[in-house]
Amino acid sequence: MLSEVLVWNAIIGGIVFGVVYALIGCSLNVLAGVLRVINFAHGEFIIAGSFFAYALYTGLAIHPLLALPLCAVVFFVAGRGLYYLLVPRLAHSDEPETSSFLLMFGVSLMLVAIMTWIFEADIRPFNFSFEPINVTLYKVENAYGEGRHGRVLVPTARLVALAVNAVIIVGLTWFFYRTLPGKALRAATMNREAVQIVGINIHQLSSTAFGLATALAGITGVILALVVPSIDPNGGADFTLIGFIVIVLGGLGHPVGALFAGIIFGFVEQFSNLLLPQAAAQMVGFIILVAVIFVRPTGLFGKGVSK
Fold first, then answer.
1. In terms of pTM, does the model score above 0.85?
2. Rounded (5°) CA angle 306-253-214
3. Which of 192, 197, 242, 270 has the fewest Cβ atoms surrounding its Cβ within 10 A?
């Protein structure tokens, strides 16, 4: 029989990592939906955000929460600059999607090389914690109700990361459904030609999408530094893969769907690790991915995308 403490830890871990994966999927969905660019460097942008927070904290003693707005601004500007430097040239290619795949794969290798050059290949511990270090969320009684035999402890940093993520997700939902730029981005994921017909500058909108996706990736990296106590310059590929799983599950062109899909994947991952051997647990998310593709190719929340 499973320990009640382990079950509660899996639930809390599913929520915490689920909202992180949701943010990864949402940012990648914006880029893939608007630009039709396969960004295989997205995970490296996330790791770069983690190292950004690490450098500010170790070098300038800047609190990671204060690094969030700085990271958002720096990565947004860098993302827009990278768009104008690279992406418009893909339009002259015979196969833009294949070219974008090769281009962004090259960017990912470049980012890994830069981070390895600056921070070396070693995994860097991010020795930051809040006071108190842990928070007791739940005390488990024994079967006879006598005394206590277990406590559900959650690192305060994870609770802070969860709260920050929740605020960002609410802000993104408001942005996509209540503001004109957000509605324009959603419209572009459905039909780029129609957006241009009504007079919207597609290149400016696309650069905004690239900057927003890059900024969200950097912010996710800062939050991830609070959730995971170490940073690996070669760990970006895992997060890129998770991002693609989330947008397939949630549906391309459906940012809120990506949010729900990220939380679903977080729960699946945590309970798979709890109930199954490690080798088998890694397959569960991909089994669900394949099943969704067969049953509902547009994703759990998707309605299809016009070309």
1. yes
2. 130
3. 197
How far separated are the first and last CA of the chain, in Å rounded?
A: 51
Q: Please give the angle made by the CA atoms of 68, 70 and 73, to the nearest 5 degrees.
A: 110
Give how far Cα 47 sits from Cα of 67, 233, 278, Å.
Answer: 14, 7, 24
Give, as one character, the DSSP assignment of residue 155. E
Name residue 298's amino acid: T
Q: Of 27, 11, 43, which is closest to residue 263 (Cα–Cα)?
A: 11
Tokens linked to 66? 């204060």
Instruction: Return the DSSP state at 143.
Output: T
Per-residue pLDDT 10s for the chain (307 aa) are 457 777 888 888 888 888 899 889 888 888 877 777 778 899 999 999 999 999 999 888 888 889 999 999 999 999 999 988 888 777 666 676 777 778 888 899 999 999 999 988 888 888 777 777 777 776 655 544 444 456 777 888 888 888 998 898 888 888 888 888 888 887 877 777 777 787 788 888 888 889 999 999 999 999 998 888 788 888 888 898 888 888 888 877 666 777 788 888 888 888 888 888 776 766 887 788 788 888 887 777 766 544 4
Structural domains of the chain, ranges and CATH numbers in brackets: 4-295 (1.10.3470)
B/e letters for 79-89, b = 16+ CB within 10 Å, e = fewer, are: bbebbeebbee
| CA angle, 3 then 18 then 57, to 5° | 105
Distance, in Å, from the CA atom of 214 to the CA atom of 201, rounded to the nearest integer, reads 20
**Which of the 8 DSSP states describes residue 123?**
P
SS (H, E, C) 269-298: HHHHHHHCCHHHHHHHHHHHHHHHHHHCCC
Length of the chain: 307
